[in-house]
Write a structure and sequence with these properties.
The chain contains 14 helices and two strands. The chain is mainly α. GO terms for molecular function: phosphate transmembrane transporter activity.
Length: 356
């Protein structure tokens, strides 16, 4: 019943089709087919050329797949920079800058040392990507249907914020164990070199709490980050097509659309890094400090300490976010999935407001 209701919601969503407004074809014959419960309307069919229908189970599953590919790959690619960033946050005396952090790490551990934590990063952020992107699409449809087509357009920023926050809540539960292991491997010398070593040690020392003690600060970091990531991206994309791109989106090639996607993703990534950085610092320090609480760590670091490692994180997150959106959109292109453009004002609202 849940997916049936979800499918009906998707079919009436203002985010439904790439180039046309949502409409249902009324069946006026009393003996006509009842294709949706208690309504004499025809269910919408997939747009010609699309591999699946927007809002179908297949669509949501493929969005989750796109999230796995985009988040898992990109986070693993920047493990060396992430490792140095984490070490700057937890030991600023030893690691004085980004370049110094790389130099010290290479001197002590060699090139191989820069890849520490790649396994928990890959598995953790793949699971997070599945929930983040897949559930975002689900919640966006659910909330849009709940408030109606006109309100979905008028309050679309709030819709993006609510859908992304809801998705990230569950995504962080999936990420937390691997994030804890990653930080432990990267910031605690001699603790473990691999995920297989880290997991049993963490479990033996602190039990299940070792994997979830950072969940609340992880929510504090990731939920604002994801809200900014999706809402800023969606609105920036809308503004780029409206004021910067010299032709309508439907006239752009797939390659040109992906370039715009990358640009909007990078802009969103810069803001993401700033709003989520203090909590990111707390998470890094918390997973290193045994028995400490998030409040204790924040108090110990102080206001200035909470912003340690911001510059490399802006570079990392800006690039990361842009790459994630690019890969996610490219997966949709490759799989011939529906790719709705920025929403347009519904005809009913235009009539009410007297807009031509």
């Amino acid at each position: 019943m849940l997916f049936t209701s979800l499918l009906e919601a998707a079919q009436n969503s203002p985010f439904k089709t790439p180039f046309s407004t949502v409409s249902c074809q009324t069946n006026t014959r009393s003996d006509g087919p009842q294709l949706t419960p208690n309504h004499q309307i025809m269910a919408a069919a997939p747009i010609e050329g699309d591999s699946c229908e927007f809002g179908s189970n297949t669509y949501f599953a493929l969005c989750g797949l796109g999230g796995i590919i985009s988040c898992g790959l990109t986070h693993t690619m920047v493990v060396p920079l992430d490792l140095v960033k984490c070490r700057l946050q937890v030991d600023p005396v030893k690691y004085k800058s980004v370049f110094n952090g790389f130099a010290v790490t290479l001197k002590e551990d060699g090139v191989k040392g820069l890849s520490k934590g790649w396994a928990p990063t890959f598995f953790g952020y793949s699971m997070q990507g599945l929930c983040k992107f897949g559930l975002y699409e689900v919640f966006k449809v659910i909330y849009s249907d709940a408030i109606g087509e006109e309100n979905s357009y008028l309050y679309r920023t709030w819709l993006y914020l609510a859908a992304s926050a809801s998705a990230e809540f569950f995504a962080d539960i999936a990420l937390s164990p691997m994030e804890a292991a990653k930080v432990k491997i990267q910031t605690t010398p001699g603790f473990a070199n691999t995920l297989r070593e880290a997991l049993p040690k963490m479990s033996a020392q602190e039990g299940i709490s070792a994997f979830y003690k950072g969940l609340v600060p992880l929510w504090m970091r990731q939920i604002p980050y994801t809200m900014m990531k999706f809402a800023c991206f969606e609105r920036t994309l809308e503004l780029l097509y409206k004021y910067v791109v010299p032709k309508p989106r439907q006239d752009c090639t797939k390659g040109e659309q992906l370039v715009v996607t990358f640009a909007a993703g990078y802009i969103a990534g810069v803001f993401c890094a700033i709003v989520s950085h203090p909590a990111d610092t707390v998470v890094s320090k918390l997973n290193q400090a045994k028995g400490a609480s998030a409040f204790d760590v924040a108090k110990q670091l102080g206001w200035a300490g909470l912003w340690g490692g911001l510059v490399p994180r802006i570079v990392m997150i800006g690039t990361l976010t842009a790459a994630q959106w690019f890969i996610y959109d490219a997966v949709k292109v490759y799989l011939h999935m529906p790719r709705p453009p920025p929403p347009e004002m519904p005809e009913s609202l235009k009539q009410k407001l007297g807009v031509a």
